[in-house]
## 1
Amino acid sequence: MERYNLIVVGAGPAGLSAAIEAAGRGMSVIVFDENHRPGGQLFKQIHKFFGSKEHKAKIRGFKIGEQLLKEASDAGVKVQLDSTVTGMYLNNEVTVNHDGQICHYRGDSIIIATGASENMVPFDGWTLPGVIGAGAAQTMMNLHGVKPGSKVLMLGSGNVGLVVSFQLLQAGCEVVALVDAAPRIGGYGVHAAKVARTGVPFYLSHTIKKAEGTDCVTGVVIGQVDEHFKIIPGTEKHFDVDTICVAVGLSPMSQLLKMAGVKMEDNPRRGGQVPIVDEYGETSVPCIFAAGDVSGIEEASSAMIKGRMAGLRAAFRLGYTDEDSMKKSESDFAADLDSLRQGMFAPGNKGKLIEKTDEGIPVSMNLLTKGFVAADEIGRFPGVTVQKGIHPVIECTQNIPCNPCQDACAKHCIKIGSCITALPQVENPSPCTGCGLCVASCSGQAIFLVNESFESGFASVTLPYEFLPLPVAGDKGTALDRSGKPVCDAEVVSVRTSPAFDHTNLLTMKVPVDYAMSARFFKKN
């Protein structure tokens, strides 16, 4: 039997962060993961993260995974893959199935960071080939380069459903509709907006009635639901699709904790059956900790901090760090975690209708029900200004924990302040040089550069563009508005790429000046 100071189960963002923190304090650490490669969900995530520099904001998920793996290796953490932990027993003993053999390990402490599994919604035909989870779609696209389908309907408007819908579009799939039984979009408005402006329609207060097909999915029927979430007869709508993607939440994978005798609770706000933990992730069983989604569903940025906190507390429990050092680090971690839990999407606001921003500005109801801010609503937000010359227009309309745009602007055109959930503001007049770093840095793709004096009768609009093949200067096409509706002819002026933009290309199109504040996407003819 091998023995370690710390055994970590799960090599995702929480598990790796916990291992790095503990190993950095001098502990011998081993991490087990059942998958062929470490990093958990991070290696599926090709989008840029929110938060601040400290939270790895504007860095793509798979890059964060690479960084964590290097940190773990440098700290001396042993990561054993293709290893399924099959049981937890007395005296912190675990059994691990590796290469067909059952091996025994004992840890002075254990951190469970097994993450969560996708939920599924049963409907007529839900077992047909072609009905898949959003995580499975991400695995196919972003790890294996395989399109999940050609015509896809997405069920679920949380961040996972919105992000994966956009990634399906990037992979060349047609997303025919985004459907949710809830009356309001559950994820970040900026994620919804970047999907809506490509022309994908949203159907809120709708759900799937049945999947059509015999051997595989050939179509889907949705219907509007009443206040009891029952489909209203006569409201059915049909779509020809070959794939139905389901993103209806996650459930913590807490089985090992139950086996260890940890006290559990059924907490819908945290995702279901979760361990009862203290603020450091320690469970009712001494020296057994839980970190990441297994202790409550949150974003990966929060999971990394909670992992660090659990690793630190485990080190203190075993005498690998002193109390003063522990308290100082825990205070820093707690402050970082608190900043991510502010704003409209704070855990305490889950399920609530937030009608005003922290600044007292009415929230766009159109955004919550259709995925885009209406033209008569957008002007009330501080990042949206009309000025002479080139200037940023920031269509960030919710209090989301994110501030890379403020740091990106060398001319200090953009201000958020010390609270990272505050709405960004644009200086007026703006000393903008048109460098585009703010556009590329925005994790929600909500920043545009507008120049209403570009040419006589024409304006230029620079927008983030992450689709292939890239248009080239001179290409003619159509400008789409925030709803995805064609509004005018457009011509590509330039497409800029740079290592500093991290694969977010800056497409500048020329449009009639009257459409400078409405043209938000380019579609090639």
## 2
Amino acid sequence: MAEAHQAVGFRPPLTSDAGEVELSAPMLQEIYLSGLRSWKRHLSRFWNDFLTGVFPASPLSWLFLFSAIQLAWFLQLDPSLGLMEKIKELLPDWGGQHHRLRGVLAAALFASCLWGALIFTLHVALRLLLSYHGWLLQPHGAMSSRTKTWLALVRIFSGRHPMLFSYQRSLPRQPVPSVQDTVRKYLESVRPVLSDEDFDWTAALAREFLRLQASLLQWYLQLKSWWASNYVSDWWEEFVYLRSRNSLMVNSNYYMMDFLYVTPTPVQAARAGNAVHALLLYRHRLNRQEILPTLLMGMRPLCSAQYEKIFNTTRIPGVHKDHIRHLRDSRHVAVFHRGRFFRVGTHSQSGLLSPRALEQQFQRILDDPSPACPHEEHLAALTAAPRDMWAQVRRSLKTQAQEALEAVEGAAFFVSLDSEPAGLTREDPAASLDAYAHALLAGRGHDRWFDKSFSLIVFSNGKLGLSVEHSWADCPISGHMWEFTLATECFQLGYSADGHCKGHPDPSLPQPQRLHWDLPDKIHLSISLALRGAKTLSGNIDCHVFPFSHFGKSFIKRCHLSSDSFIQMALQLAYFRDRGQFCLTYESTMTRLFLEGRTETVRSCTREACNFVRAMEDKEKTDPQCLALFRLAVDKHQALLKAAMSGQGVDRHLFALYIVSQFLHLQSPFLDQVHSEQWQLATSQIPVQQIHLFDVHSYPDYVSSGGGFGPADDHGYGVSYIFMGDDVITFHISSKKSSTRTDSHRLGQHIEDALLDVAALFQEGQRLKCRGLAEKGSEHSRDSLPCHTRGSRAPTTATNF
């Protein structure tokens, strides 16, 4: 999602000027430190690793094995073939009375060695099986005998009832692709957007890179891939996120929305109480590893490492580089309301506070009439400031207001009780949704603590939302938590008839603790500057959200096509109609098939996609011709998506090669050009991962409406989409108001028209387009366009829903 903006923004410098970071550490030392960081993480969670590390066995299986050996020994059988006798000889001689004890110890040691060898064999076998990615390349709906055999073996070697981290030791490491293949794929991806002259120049740079530098840089990457857990992920976190000096607001954070059509209660404190309780229930399950690992096809596990830092995590600003601070536990949340900060405990002596008790605490904050202290109201704007500025101010703040700062940074998460309502309204649905998205992404610039892993935002009418910092994990992780939260607080915890949380208040609870900030005079100017910058950045973002309800995933499935590829090709058509040209397109996909994998880029603007778009804009082309080109474009996109997921993408490999070149102080014009590219269309699909939590047939309105992020380029768009049930797709579009080339509402109209035009290529879709055009004509009080219209420019006005 938001990593597209960060990916084009990082620039590790080669010099050691005063304001820059020098990457002068020897390359071998950096590889050694990468591996050391991996091993430290493993050691810090040794006990959990032990419990999950023996999976698919269990500690009880050792007891069973030991008992079986003892029984065999009692029956005068030696399953060890003499090894236990040799072990007994190596044990100290404690005298005849301890002879039986030596036998038991020998049997225990033999059982432990045999048990460990069996577990190791299972892990190696499962890792080898999980290294096979041929199943990804299978045609949709078809499965070869080889893949069926692979699935059967995975079932045999994968134990039952896995915990969250059970598969971590068995996941393969992300492979380093061939540098020749990566360069070839890169040149293929940029061909549609470059002129002949520019492409020839780029190809010459690529040939020079392959001849002079590629083999050396690739050797270092191979070395790192053998030593560290992942050859790219730690550098991705550091250089793309933590070394970025830009504001986190809009540039790095992203948002997630509540139910689109339903607000379970209008009572703000009650909604906050249930939501906070549900989030802490999720944390409890996370700590106990009771969350099931994500399995593709119900069998292929994904890496779960990113779940570790959901809670109790803060991004701490530093000069030149931030760092992520994660606490093992936190028993309070930090709350912001009307410019004031509070510390609210989440536990009592008997355990987690009930939703009703939490509601009581939040209501006390809402009822507190005390005003904010001077400059306290705008203090959080510092977290939206450039990182170097915030790091310098934070040093003074830590000295003068250490207790208050620690209460915020050490909280489980941040809660903002907004004084304004939000969400879809009947009076102006389009504008209300846009304002809702803007409030979640940027707010007013001073009412979110953007450093926290996530902030829960509760509006005055009971609407919810999340603002998520991106460095610690990617969207599917926070999305998984958010799905659980919405389902739990609404369907399991529920509300009483008067809209309050169920249960009874606890009058013995102490009042929420008001945090007091002793703000030195010298940071008052910094707060004012940060607020001015945050308001400018917030005011420049143009958000547009619209649910596309003419068709959804069910129609696309009936067309026997990938729903994601269908949308991506429609986006190419929409962007071309919006700008009259093609551009590099960033689509984020996961690489969690590998240990500590994060994301890869799918370059969706392909030659096949461009051929399809040109055909759609050529009125001489027939629908069958356009449909044939559309299927070719979809097939190409699917091939790129599967290659990226299986570790054979382009961008992460080129990124890692670039970082190595910086460490080695090797200048590469080719890599410099690659990382100067601008992504004018950044896209992402919000996955729905826990369908079982929502009954979309009985409660069709109780589905998440997804989320969005800022544009990756000043003259570009950020587009995310989510399939809401079977018949609705919600789009979130962002752009900069300062750009004269972009307009989020205009692109939204083009997306709607492009989807209807693509659907009309199919016989069933022609009826959908006729109905869509008729509805549009009715809404805008104009004559409906003829149903066969294709290739004309779409109107630029926004559709009201």
